[in-house]
Structure formats: C-alpha cells, structure tokens
Design brief:
It is globular and about 55 Å long. About 40% of the residues are buried. It has about 280 residues and is of the alpha/beta class. It is built from five helices and eleven strands. Strands 1, 2, 3, 4, 5, 6, 7, 8, 9, 10 and 11 form an eleven-stranded mixed sheet that branches. The protein has a single domain, classed as Rossmann fold (3-Layer(aba) Sandwich), CATH 3.40.50.1580.
Length: about 280
C-alpha cells in the first residue's frame, strides 16, 4: 500500500474530518512514539487535507501531555507543507472580545519540560523564531475572514502557559500589563516544531472568554460557563466555514520563507576528529 499524502494539515478539536467526503483513516509510525490519534485524510476541492485531533478524538491528552513531536512528524511523513492550527483561547485585552478570531504573529513561551525540538545533537541547531508564524497564510486568512464578516485581529501575541491549571489573577494581570493578546496552552511547541521541519504554520486563536485578570475592567463583563460553551460552538461553526473558504485559496507554490528556516541554523564544529 502506497504512503498517504496530503498538502495541508490541520490540528484541532474533533469533528472537522466528518465534513470532508470519503475520509480515510491512517496510522503513521514516528521515531517519537504515537501521535495523539490516527490521522484523517480527505479531499477538499482538489486539495488533500490531513486532520489530526491534537488532544485525541476523546480529548484524552491534556495540553502538557500531548506528544507534539509525534504529531508534527506525522504531518511531515505525509508531505504536509502547511499547517493550520486553530485553538480556543482567553482574551487578555478588552477590545479582543469573545467570538473574535486572532491570527497571531508572535508568542511568549511560559511552558516547562515539553520536548520542543527535533535537534538534540550532535550538532547544535538554532532556528530563528523572529517571525514564527507564516505571513503568507496569515494574510490570506485575514482576507477571507474579512470577506466573511468574522470579527478578527490581523496579529497578536499569544502567551502559552503550561496548564492544565488556569492562571491566577496575578499571573493574568502580568500578561495583560505586558500587552499580550491571548492566552492558550497548546501553541508551543507546535509552532517551533513546524518551523524546524520547514512547514508553514498558521494559528487561529478562537476567543471564548476574557481571562481572569480582566475582571472588573471597563467594557469587560463576567462570562458564565454557559456563555463560554455557546461562544465555543459558534466559533467552531465559523471556523469550519473559514477553513472551507481558506484552503482552496492557498497557492500550491509557497511564496514565504518558512521552508528556509533551517538555512544557516546548524553551527559547524570548530574542528574535526582528524585535526
């Protein structure tokens, strides 16, 4: 049996693959163990799309326990060149309201102990993360969201916390006062692992609520659990529509520099064994 192939990969919650006709399910072996789940591949207007639920189809893996390296390697084995990575998040700024989408362009890592590189030696490899997210994909996503009337922010900084607990008020206010945009538990190390593999990465932050440190600030209201779930369901529906409009508009040839992330990243040894 020939190896399955896909052009575009999607990490996210369960359910998206059920909206693509003739989906096939595969298990991909990786050097890093098992991925979060099987990968589901189907055709969307002539583009082969691979979907992998990052938490597993039963949401059995909390953010700190996800095998991110296996998930990313699965996409690499399929030939994926672009990854779209939606994820629920909390807002850190009053103007970023529940129901809005944020296409992040920067991140701050507050996780710990996660396996976050494919390059453990013997040569040191230091990729640049000056611009960690794909500009080309972000521009297309913003254009599509604007045409669809989805409230969105064209850039923003995500702070990724370890989880599974949420922030204290003190931590949340620190992030707010730093000017960061949204808070999430899964973007890191997904984005840097994709970059190490030369894969474009688009984050779609789906705002479900305001973070705890914004409580009491002007323009910010208390959000109930019922309202969070309502926004979550509405965001999922908007996300599906966005993806079905976005994917066919992604050009087959990449016009970004993501594929060159490893160029000049490897530090050559100062001497060889023969010296």
């Amino acid at each position: 049996m020939s190896k399955p192939r896909a052009d575009i990969g999607i990490f996210g919650g369960s359910g998206f693959y059920s909206f693509i006709d003739e989906v096939k399910e595969y298990v991909i072996d990786t050097p890093y163990g098992e991925a979060s789940d099987h990968v589901f591949i189907g055709d969307l207007e002539g583009r082969m799309v691979a979907f992998l639920p990052r938490h597993g189809r039963y949401h059995q893996y909390p953010p700190h326990a996800i095998n991110y390296r296996a998930n990313l390697w699965t996409m690499k084995e399929l030939g994926v060149k672009r990854i779209i990575a939606p994820g629920a998040c909390g807002s850190l700024q009053p103007e970023i309201e529940p129901g809005h989408f944020v296409f992040c362009d920067q991140f701050v890592d507050r996780t710990k102990g996660r396996a976050d590189t494919f390059y453990d030696g013997p040569l040191s490899t230091h990729i640049s993360t000056e611009e960690p997210y794909c500009l080309e994909l972000r521009q297309i996503a913003c254009q599509v969201a604007g045409e669809m009337g989805i409230p969105y922010h064209p850039n923003g900084t995500a702070v990724i916390i370890q989880g599974p607990r949420f922030s204290t008020k003190a931590e949340s206010r620190w992030y707010i006062n730093s000017g960061w945009s949204v808070i999430n538990m899964t973007q890191y190390p997904e984005v840097v692992l994709a970059r190490e593999l030369g894969i474009c990465y688009l984050n779609v932050s789906l705002v479900t609520d305001w973070d705890v440190g914004l409580a009491g600030m002007p323009g910010v209201k208390t959000v109930t659990a019922e309202e969070v779930y309502k926004v979550f369901r509405e965001n999922n529906e908007k996300l599906r529509k966005l993806l079905f409009q976005l994917i066919p508009r992604i050009p087959e040839k990449r016009g970004c520099t993501c594929k060159d992330a490893l160029k000049d990243a490897v530090i050559n040894p100062l001497y060889s064994d023969s010296d």
